[in-house]
Model the fold of this input.
Amino acid sequence: MTDVIIVGGGAGGMSCAITMASAWQKPWFDDRRIMVIDDKRSDLNKAMLNNAPGVPLGTTGTELLEQLQDQLAQYPPAKRHEATALNVRRHLPGGFEVELDDGTTHHCLVLVLATGYKRWELDGLDLEPAVHPRGGKSNRLMLSHDGCYLIEPDMHVAGLLAGGSSQFAIAAGIGAQVAVDILSEWAGKRTHVHEVTGT
Ligand SMILES: Cc1cc2nc3c(=O)[nH]c(=O)nc-3n(C[C@H](O)[C@H](O)[C@H](O)COP(=O)(O)OP(=O)(O)OC[C@H]3O[C@@H](n4cnc5c(N)ncnc54)[C@H](O)[C@@H]3O)c2cc1C
Done:
């Protein structure tokens, strides 16, 4: 059992995972675990990121994805699993079962969907993607949510699939917001994760 499964490890999913895992030493984090499931088809693989705030000039999206993976690896509760998620089933009274194309099945209490705005191939959930309002093309997709990226109890959407415009900072920002909302649930109060320089 993993506490959170994030399907999609592009800008939105990795930002969500990194922000969430960065709280791992808070007392209320307990021994929670986070898994990112990704099949390496992020739009970042085609990008040159000269306008992404804080990202060094000349960084390719592929390099940035590697940096995000290194960044996630510093946190013991998080892991990235390379596979395609095929099917998700909700269990009652709570939790989800996620079936992958490598034959493994994983269970979680909280699900984050961050599969980008170009594909929706997950079976098993009663969700119908809508035309993305900011995607510029009729085949761009988003999932409806409550305005704060919650689709249903314990099911969040992040990255462009949540309706943001196609910029790294926007996709990553939505991922971070979803992470902070999940952390706030765990903390039992509104929270965020800040580190200080010590000077
Ligand atoms: C050509 C191009 C150039 C760009 N240039 C810039 C730029 O200069 N500046 C900028 O800010 N932005 C740029 N972008 C936009 C940026 O890449 C996107 O905004 C960002 O990648 C969106 O993040 P996301 O997490 O929503 O989707 P993605 O990054 O596309 O990630 C979605 C992830 O979900 C995974 N996935 C989907 N379904 C499944 C499944 N069933 N199982 C497992 N994994 C799954 C995919 O493999 C992928 O890794 C560019 C995009 C493109 C295409």
The pocket of flavin-adenine dinucleotide is lined by residues 7-13, 37-44, 46-49, 51-52, 61, 84-85, 114-116, 119, 121-122, 159-161, 166-169, 171 (CB under 6 Å). The first strand starts at residue 2 and ends at 7.
